[in-house]
Amino acid sequence: MEQVKQDGRLKRSIRSRQTIIDAMLVLTEQGQYIPTAQQVADQANISIRTVFRHFTEMEHLYKELDDAVRPSYEKYFMIDDVSGPLDERIEQLVQSRLNAYQETFHINKASHALFWRSALLTETYQKNQKLLRTLMLKALPELKDKHIDIIEMADAITSFEVFDRYFTYQQLPIEECERLFIAQLKQLVLD
User: Fold this and answer.
1) List of residues 6+ apart from 23 with CB closer than 8 A
2) Closest CA to 17 of 54, 56, 66, 65
3) What is the mean pLDDT of each run of 10 residues along the chain (191 residues)?
4) Number of independent structural domains in the chain
5) pTM for this structure?
6) Domain identity same for 83 and 158
């Protein structure tokens, strides 16, 4: 009988944690990039005390949220064929990044908004940037022979920050963002 009670409590605890993570994700997707614990509790329809029982600090919630969404966006950054013609590899790299940026748009915006208060998000973002550079150089080995300035520019051109500028602030359609990314990247690689 005691085992059944413990199993039931464990299942409720797991459900509560997931409800909190889901609530945080919903708020983020709605553009609430710095939600408070109270907003998370309200969205999850639970008490704030329950939120703090599961996540003593918001930093722990950020980590669990990152762990939950990571598999959904990492798949976009993996490029299958890195042996095709240069034009095709550039297009594939750009398309994979734009797909990822669209899917993770709100998560990226929230991460940027929370950098100042989250060492975890800053560290995770830095790791992701290193991974993106590694994958870019794998897909476009022609860049390896270029001056570091060119590599930095290629990295910047294909970044979320440039995408956000084009898409959000300049209100360019995705097709135009893609065209610009490809044209700029080709110019860097071919010069």
Assistant:
1) 40, 41, 43, 44
2) 54
3) 64 85 92 91 92 85 82 73 86 92 89 84 87 91 93 94 96 97 94 78
4) 2
5) 0.83
6) yes
